[in-house]
Each structure stands twice: as structure tokens, then as C-alpha cells.
Specification:
Number of domains: 3
Shape: globular
Radius of gyration: 28 Å
Helix content: 25-40%
CATH architecture of the largest domain: Beta Barrel
């Protein structure tokens, strides 16, 4: 394009260029906006009102910003399963799927990252979605959860802002699937309610080992309502039976390059093998009379209910036992909505939840092409549905008859409303009063106490990882002002944390903070999770001439405990033992890496090459530096001794196969060995 033609094109485009800096905020119609922090509510703790046209315009535009993938949670993977309650919850809720322990309710679960597009990697530092659709006899119930129990913001009107800030920066569309850039951290310092969630995002919770080893949290406060109309406040938890475990950051980055499908592959392969992921459903329950007894507002989505104060009652178990048949038809077309509830489960005035109740249906309209997304097979309820909705894009139902309105006499006023006794949904009758305001309750004003609680509850290793995460993320931020503001802000969480970040970045540490919180919540630390060897992957490094009787003994011992060994060697084909036994090679050093395994067992054999020794050394060194359990017998022991691994925590050596197998499995169950000396 010549300069003349380029200049003319620029002139044509100039009328469309908008420079927002220094301007006043307006609606799309040019109306100046006086409030963009709070949605319109009936009282400071009341529900969001439909007449808030600015909120609706802002949210509607946001919901329609991406075509065709989801605006958030675009990178997802899913599976089918079933849920069974352990005991009747009739005391608390009339929801039928929570009544009968003999009934199995079909479910569909979609796991996801939040920030990245569909083509991004599974292992980036991010929040993970954990959305469950229950196909109950009363209709579909959607528990749209995350793997963190809190969120960045307190009011739904701010959701477009946090997503705009954390998504790739619009001027260059970088970085993909990462919060390590200026706009996210600028949002944090300007919206300090995000302090608690940011602590979670910088923690090991943001880089889970597997979807199968990840907790889920409903985030919001909901209501259980029983047959008598009595309500309790409730929060939902998914607890993986394998425990909650994480990757480490260096490992997560390398996996992103070596296997960007790491989490989805792990889920798919384990279901195919019959290692069905299991999660227990837990609930925290608070009586209505105790709504104001805590030092935080229970409707604030940036706050959790400490499990030591409000115990989690385990009420049932979900098992994922079938992979999808078609990713697009099921995983991509499934439509979740926190407003898809059944009788006995109701909402509260959590202002973030109130915003989501509007947003999700609106999102599905643009993503799935119209109002009939509920007729797509993966979204159809298992019970029949009857209403007067007609036509629209992609209508599949063939409605018979000429009546499509209520009330009517031609069809006996049917379909008719159902009474509560007949299973009709009835909104909980909460008393609401107050002026119409755009404001937030003062009870939402404490932004740092629970961020400090989270920090206090971490182990030393977890604290180090949080500090390193802050250092990495802020090291990618260009604005010196934003970086200094982050340091000052998180001085209110913990001075040690802020000082170490400041020192690394060459900034001024804060001299004081506001936090004097000493309380801890052990349930928040991954160090206190369940630890098991089940479904752990172990790389077994072999060459020809390996001592087959001993090796076969160890392999059998590992498999009998639910561990998954894979044979790694220099070439594909067979490795042959010293007595002629052949084992199939699963991977070579070229096609896999230690970051894709939970542990490494090194035996070698009598026939090795220089290339094998070099590749094996790299493989073992990486596993050692990632604090993983490593074991060696026979020729492998000599290699460990030369490299000074012997004697370190989680390093198991010896030629007593029974003793070795026992100790190696114990090391694998521990997952990581943080007190190891890693240079």
C-alpha cells in the first residue's frame, strides 16, 4: 500500500477511532454515568433491580463480545457421570435428588480455565471452572463452581471489568492466558476487593496437578429451603477423593509446551482405564438467625466461610465414568446457568450472584444461536418440559395444537401452573426493604483480613511459591507505578510477603500494614490434603539386560497399589531382560519428559549408550529439581550416588525389592518433598 493510499485509509478510519483517556464514562447512548461500581439494589444488601439499565447494557454487551467461543472458560473438557446422596437432606431442602440414597442422578461436568482461548494450554496459572449439570427428575440443576472459593469482585456489574483487565491486552493481544501483565495488576490496585482472590491466584491452587485432584466451590451463598418453607444459608464444595494436589510453576510452564492437553488427556485416559474420578459433595450450612454473627458478610463473594468455623458436611459422591462422544456436541454446546435450580435450592442477595443470574442466559443466546439452546441434546432435561415458548432459531420441538398462551380455555388452561405440593418452584419469601440505591453494604468493606488468613494458613513451601508467583507476575509488569502500588497494597496482607516482592523488584518496601490477623485455617493448605498413590504415573527407565525378576516384582507392587508405570527407553519396541523377558516401551526420551510423571524409577540395564545416559540424566535431574519422588535399584543406584541424590528426602534406593517397593510407594504418596536440597 502506497503512503497516499495508506493516509486516505487512515482518514477513513479516524472517524471510528475513539480515545477514551480523560473522558467521562457514558452509556452506549451517550448518557453520562454517575455510578459504575455498584448495581442498583433494593437497600445496600438487597437484590439487584431489573430497572438498572446501565448494568444490563454493560453486561449484555460483555456477554456478546466473543464469537463463537465462550468469553471466559473457553478452554474446557468434560465427562459424564452420576451422583448419589449418602443420606436424606430433607431436614434442609426439598430438592428430590438430595433425598434418596438409592437414586443415581446423571451428571455432566465441564472443567475449564478462565482466561485463555480454546487454543491455549491446560496448565497456565488461572482459576479453573468446575461446572456440574445434574439431570434430576425435577429438571436440570447447575452447580457452576470454580476451584477457588472466592472471586475477584463483589458486584456483578464489575465482571466485564475484571475480565477485560485479565484478558490479553487489546492493543497487542498479549499475553495469552496469563495475568502477568499491566492491566490485570492495575485492576488489582484500583479494586482492592480483589486482594483475597489474588492470593489464591498466586498460590498452588492456580496450577492443579489434575482435574481429578482439584476441589470445587460454589463460591456464592445459596439457600436450602425445606418442605416447611424454612431456609438455611448454604455453600457447596466438591472434595476429590484423591486429595487436592498441584504442579509447581516451572513444571507447569514446561508442560504447556510439551503437552498443552495435559489435563484433558489425564481426564480422558483415566476414565478410559476405569480410574473413575470421584468427588464428594459437601455443604456448609448456616441458620438464618446466625446471618450476622461472623466477622465477615456471608453474602460477600470475596470471602469464604472458614471450615473450622462452619464445618463441611459431606452429603454425597459424584463419579465420572464416561467420556464424551463428541467434544463439540457436548463439551462446547453445554450451557450452564446458576439460575437453573430445582425446588429446595434458592438464591441470596449476593450482588455477584444476582448479576450472574442475568448474564448466563444472555450469553447462551449469542453463543448457541438463539433461545432454544435447551433443546440441544446435552442440555435437554431428562424430565419432559411444557410451556408456551415457540419458534426461534434451531427449534426442534414439534408442538401440536393451536394454543400457546396462558391463560386459555381451549386447552383447559394448560399447560397449567403447578402447586408447591406438585413440585412447583416457589421463590423464598424474603423480606426486602430499603431505598433504591447504587451502593455496597459497609459489611463488604474489609478486603484484607481473609487474604491474611489465607497467607497465615499456608505451609512454608506454599508461602515461598506465592512469593515467587508475585515476583514472576510483577516482573512482567512494565509500569513502575503499578508495581509499587501492588507492593504497598499487599503490605496490608503481610509485611514479609510485600517486602520480599519489593526487594526482588527493586522497589520500596512498605513500612507498615494494617493486618494484625493471626488466625489460621488448616483446611486451606494443600499440605493437609489426602495423600494417596492411586493413579499416580511413574516413569520406569530401562535398557536391555535389566534384572527382570526384581523389576517385575516392583512393577507388580506398583500396579497392585493403583500406580501407573510406563516404560521409558532410548527407542520404541521392546526392552529385553537378563532372562529373555520382553517389555513394551511406552515412550522414549524424545516423546516424553519427567514433568509428565509423578515419580521416576531408574534401573537401567547392562546395555546403555552415551545418548541414553545423557537423556536419562536430564530426565532424573528435572524430576529431582521438581521435588518429586525418585527411586533407583541395581545400576540406577550408582548413577544416583555419582549425582549426590542419595540421602535426600524422597530419594529411595536399595536392592531389597520388598523394602524398596514399600518405601517408594510411601514417597510417591507424599507427592512432593519440599525439604530436599535443590540447587
Amino acid at each position: 500500500m502506497t503512503n497516499d493510499r495508506k493516509n486516505k485509509k487512515d482518514e477513513q478510519l479516524e472517524i471510528f477511532r475513539v480515545h477514551d483517556k480523560g473522558e467521562k464514562l457514558t452509556t452506549n447512548q451517550g448518557l453520562k454515568v454517575s455510578e459504575d461500581e455498584f448495581s442498583l439494589k433494593a437497600g445496600v444488601r438487597g437484590p439487584t433491580l431489573m430497572e438498572d439499565f446501565h448494568f444490563r447494557e454493560k453486561m449484555t454487551h460483555f456477554d456478546h463480545e466473543r464469537i463463537p467461543e465462550r468469553v471466559v472458560h473457553a478452554r474446557g473438557y468434560a465427562a459424564h457421570g452420576e451422583f448419589q446422596v449418602y443420606e436424606s437432606m430433607k431436614q434442609y431442602t426439598r430438592a428430590k435428588f438430595l433425598q434418596d440414597p438409592t437414586v443415581k442422578t446423571p451428571v455432566f461436568v465441564r472443567f475449564s480455565t478462565v482466561v485463555g482461548n480454546r487454543g491455549s494450554s491446560d496448565t497456565f496459572r488461572d482459576v479453573r471452572g468446575f461446572a456440574t449439570k445434574f439431570y434430576t427428575e425435577e429438571g436440570n440443576y447447575d452447580l457452576v463452581a470454580n476451584n477457588m472459593p472466592v472471586f475477584f469482585i463483589q458486584d456483578g456489574i464489575k465482571f466485564p471489568d475484571i475480565v477485560h483487565a485479565i484478558k490479553p491486552e487489546p492493543h497487542n493481544e498479549m499475553p495469552q492466558a496469563s495475568s502477568a501483565h499491566d492491566t490485570y495488576w492495575d485492576f488489582v490496585v484500583a479494586n482492592q476487593e480483589s486482594a483475597h482472590m489474588t492470593m489464591w491466584l498466586m498460590s498452588d491452587r492456580a496450577i492443579p496437578r489434575s482435574f481429578r485432584m482439584m476441589e470445587g466451590f460454589g463460591v456464592h451463598t445459596f439457600r436450602f429451603v425445606n418442605d416447611e418453607g424454612k431456609a438455611h444459608f448454604v455453600k457447596f464444595h466438591w472434595k476429590p477423593t484423591l486429595g487436592a494436589h498441584s504442579l509447581i510453576w516451572d513444571e507447569a510452564q514446561e508442560i504447556a509446551g510439551r503437552d498443552p492437553d495435559f489435563h484433558r488427556r489425564d481426564l480422558w485416559e483415566n476414565i478410559e482405564r476405569g480410574n473413575y474420578p470421584e468427588y464428594e459433595l459437601g455443604v456448609q450450612i448456616i441458620e438464618e438467625k446466625d446471618e450476622f454473627k461472623f466477622d465477615f458478610d456471608i453474602l460477600d463473594s470475596t470471602k469464604l466461610w472458614p471450615e473450622e468455623d462452619v464445618p463441611v458436611k459431606i452429603i454425597g459422591k459424584m463419579t465420572l465414568n464416561r467420556n464424551v462422544d463428541n467434544v463439540f456436541a457436548e463439551t462446547e454446546q453445554v450451557a450452564f446457568h446458576p439460575g437453573h435450580v430445582v425446588p429446595g435450592i434458592d438464591f441470596t442477595n449476593d450482588p455477584l450472584l444476582q448479576g450472574r443470574l442475568f448474564s448466563y442466559t444472555d450469553t447462551q443466546l449469542i453463543r448457541l444461536g438463539g433461545p432454544n439452546f435447551h433443546e440441544i441434546p446435552i442440555n435437554r432435561p431428562v424430565c419432559p418440559f411444557h410451556n408456551n415458548q415457540r419458534d426461534g432459531y434451531h427449534r426442534q420441538t414439534i408442538n401440536v395444537g393451536k394454543v400457546s398462551y396462558h391463560k386459555n380455555t381451549l386447552w383447559g388452561n394448560t399447560p397449567a401452573e403447578a402447586s408447591v405440593a406438585e413440585g412447583g418452584f416457589k421463590h423464598y419469601e424474603e423480606k426486602v426493604e430499603g431505598r433504591k440505591v447504587q451502593a455496597r453494604s459497609e459489611s463488604f468493606a474489609d478486603h484484607f483480613s481473609q487474604a491474611t488468613l489465607f497467607w497465615n494458613s499456608m505451609s512454608d513451601a506454599e508461602k515461598k511459591h506465592i512469593i515467587n508467583a508475585f515476583q514472576f507476575e510483577l516482573g512482567k509488569v512494565h509500569s513502575e507505578s503499578v508495581k509499587q502500588q501492588v507492593v504497598d497494597m499487599f503490605g496490608n496482607v503481610n509485611l514479609q510477603l510485600a517486602t520480599e516482592i519489593a526487594t526482588y523488584l527493586g522497589l520500596t518496601p512498605p513500612k507498615s500494614g494494617i493486618s494484625n490477623i493471626t488466625k489460621t485455617s488448616p483446611a486451606l493448605s494443600l499440605e493437609n490434603t489426602k495423600k494417596t498413590v492411586e493413579t499416580r504415573k511413574v516413569a520406569v527407565i530401562l535398557t536391555d539386560g535389566f534384572p527382570e525378576s526384581d523389576v517385575l516384582f516392583v512393577l507388580d507392587a506398583l500396579k497392585s497399589s493403583g500406580i501407573q508405570p510406563e516404560i521409558i527407553s532410548e527407542n520404541f519396541g521392546k526392552v529385553v531382560g537378563n532372562k529373555g523377558t520382553e517389555l513394551e516401551v511406552d515412550n522414549t526420551f524424545e516423546t516424553t519428559n519427567s514433568v509428565l510423571f509423578d515419580a521416576v524409577y531408574m534401573i537401567n540395564g547392562s546395555k546403555t549408550s552415551k545418548k541414553f545416559n545423557k537423556d536419562a540424566a536430564y530426565f532424573i535431574d528435572k524430576a529431582f529439581s521438581h521435588y518429586k519422588p525418585i527411586g533407583a535399584t541395581h545400576e540406577g543406584i550408582k548413577w544416583f550416588e555419582v549425582n549426590h541424590f542419595v540421602g535426600n528426602p524422597g530419594v529411595v534406593v536399595g536392592n531389597d525389592m520388598r523394602k524398596f517397593s514399600k518405601e517408594f510407594k510411601e514417597a510417591i504418596a507424599a507427592h512432593r518433598h519440599w525439604n530436599r536440597s535443590v540447587v
